[in-house]
Predict the structure.
Amino acid sequence: MALRNIVTKEDPILYKTSREVKQFNIRLQQLLDDMAETLEKSCGVGLAAVQVGVLRRAVLVLETNVGEGEDEHIIEFINPEIIEVEGEQTGAEGCLSVPGEYGLVSRPMRVKARAQNRYGAWFEYEGVGLTARCMCHEFDHLDGHLFLEKCERMLTEEEVNGGSEEE
Ligand code: CO
């Protein structure tokens, strides 16, 4: 595994549409492994391939809704599509490609997606709360969208550090 560089919002690649993954080969697995290492190192909750400069429809989401004694774990979504949404949440959102900036963004409370795993098998996955937010945020990256476009307003440093409770 190797760390990859995360591009920031000045990079035009972030505004491009990622292409479908068609080959579930060792190169894809290498990419996903590198992304996982990069995500862990940067303490983020999600990462899209485009953020490491690869225009392919692959994202990682950290599942943080886990039971006691269970570890948070990464879910790999290849060629994901949202098939169901429910409810709404409004809260602070940030992005590894927009370091140090946070905004107030509304997202569904529950999201069900259909995607392929690293071997090409289809699966469905339902995320709630932060996981649902993260799924929407990462899937947006695949169509060249950043949270800044969906943001009601940016949060001040004070609001971020004071732990704003606006949900
Ligand atoms: Co992001």
Remarks:
- The pocket of cobalt (II) ion is lined by residues 95-97, 137, 141 (CB under 6 Å).
